[in-house]
Amino acid sequence: MKTAHEVRPGNVIMFEGSPWVVQKTETTRSGRNAAIVKLKLKNLLLNSGTETTFKGEDKIDDIILDRLDCTYSYFADPMYVFMDAEYNQYDVEAENLGDAAAYIVDGMEETCQVTFYDGKAISVEMPTTIVREVIYTEPSARGDTSGKVMKPATITGGGTISVADFVKVGDKIEIDTRTGEFKKRV
Amino acid sequence: MSTSSNASHWDIFCTVVDNYGDIGVTWRLAKQLVNEYHIPIILWVDDLNSFSHILPTLNPKLVSQCFNGVIINHWTTPLAVPYLPGKVLIEAFACELPDEVKLQLATLHKTAPQAVPLWLNLEYLSAEDWVDGCHGLPSMQVSGIKKYFYFPGFTPKTGGLICERELFAERDAWQQDPANKLQLFESLGLKDIQAQDSVFSIFSYETDSLPALCELWQARAKNDAKIHALLPKGRSLNSLQHLLPCPVDALMPGQQIKLGDLTLHILPMTDQQGFDRLLWSCDVNIVRGEDSFLRAQWAAKPFIWHIYPQEDDYHLIKLEAFIRLYCDNLAPDIADTWSKLNFAFSQGQQSAVKTHWQNLNPVSLPLLQHAKEWPIDAINAADLATRLVQFVKKS
Description:
The complex is a heterodimer.
Chain A: E1 2-3, E2 12-15, E3 18-29, E4 35-43, E5 49-55, E6 59-60, E7 66-76, E8 79-83, E9 89-93, H1 94-97, E10 112-117, E11 120-125, E12 129-137, E13 150-155, E14 160-164, E15 172-176, E16 181-185
Antiparallel strand pairs in A: 1-6, 2-3, 3-4, 4-5, 7-8, 7-10, 8-9, 10-11, 12-13, 12-15, 13-14, 15-16
Chain B: E1 10-14, H1 21-37, E2 41-45, H2 48-54, E3 64-67, E4 70-74, E5 88-92, H3 99-111, E6 118-122, H4 130-134, E7 138-140, E8 146-150, H5 167-176, H6 178-187, E9 198-202, H7 209-221, E10 227-232, H8 235-238, E11 256-259, E12 262-267, H9 272-281, E13 284-288, H10 291-298, E14 303-306, H11 314-326, H12 332-346, H13 350-360, H14 365-379, H15 384-394
Parallel strand pairs in B: 1-2, 1-5, 2-4, 5-6, 6-8, 9-10, 9-13, 10-12, 13-14
Antiparallel strand pairs in B: 3-4, 7-8, 11-12
Helix pairs in contact in B: 6-9, 7-13, 11-12, 12-13
Organism (chain B): Shewanella oneidensis (strain ATCC 700550 / JCM 31522 / CIP 106686 / LMG 19005 / NCIMB 14063 / MR-1)
Catalytic activity (chain B): dTDP-beta-L-rhamnose + L-arginyl-[protein] = N(omega)-(alpha-L-rhamnosyl)-L-arginyl-[protein] + dTDP + H(+)
Binding site for dTDP-beta-L-rhamnose (chain B): 19-22, 205, 272, 288-292
């Protein structure tokens, strides 16, 4: 069991006898600091999609599937190809990467976890923390250094995340892949 | 009194966290569902003492009683009154249902799935964009039952806002005759308030903003009409302790504290109808939380929202989201000042609160006109109870 807070893209959860791969998680704050977690899911048996919402502390029945540490090799549209330590290659559908696709870049060295269901690679879980370079963001608007004023930034790989106002083009930043949040400049 | 089995009834479970907010919302909803839709409602509340402050005739010692057609059960652990599944089950504001209720639902799901009530989580009100995308989504529970998230909100894609059918008509009738407000003040034991005086109600959390405003009102009142600030015993007064002749606990309803031409009045507790009328009768209302915040909007009067503080100042994001909606049709200069006043108040910025209050002149005609038009825009053709009933029908 996991709490909804702990679920992250790439996890597989069980509901009504079917396994669902988590493609996207979105955590927002409700009143009195309570969290709401919205999940985008894909049914691994029926290939259908759905969206669902949980309270942050709700328990979710996750299933442990076979996993392998792999590194990203290349993109062969529409498949991302990963490779394990023994040079076996695994294709993962781009759609199944969900939010993780925004963090995939050529030459990345981070080790990802590829999850298998019925012998087929179905999803990829990124490391909790990654470092990416900011390739575009507007200059600081207000000179705020508190870190609370946020602005959009495009990172290597093409994804867009909210970063602190003081972050500049060329800065390397740490990102929490579970939430897509900017952590700090490194 | 015991709860009878009635498959058509709805259960609403509410835990009282901050005295009058959660119970205020659920009590209004329960009454409206009974009055306007004739739905039998059982309201389960864990703190009847707090509830009795807004429903003075409630007996906190009884496990079950009935008011306004709503059966009110004391939510004890374990439950003193057995839970009998109805048509709908609402857990209000992310409260955790009693174990025996969850167990019954799980058992029903296995043995008679058609008898499982529609399970809803009624969430907090927010004007943030993400609410549109989360409203009405099912939540897959481990038991196999789907629970639906129901989000109140300001757009057509949300669950709407609590507003009784006749509320606006009653308010308009009340506000048309100035004698009504003077009679109300008198009935509340508030003395020496004249028709031309400025009257502000204050129902906030503790904040440095209040002493700043009082200082401003004291100075300003010397040249203008008298100013009266109406405050219930509670958190607002904690911020004004240095202006009071005795500890807050020793203050009596109806007591006046004169500070030059500013008079602080201690309000008695009142029921929800009385609170609505108070908001209708004041020139500006300072409110907090969710229930009073919404009722201040329905009052069609200028207001300041002292939003419930959250970690990492997340409440300021919620405040900004509401301000964006509220100011959509407001003249830019007024919108800017009203926005700054609200932010400054919620952050306890004394100097800024005074500056923006003076710049805004909250009793000015354009802001008042906007306050009158806003409720019609905000309600978006259907209130929360109406949309809730439609949601249940479709589910």
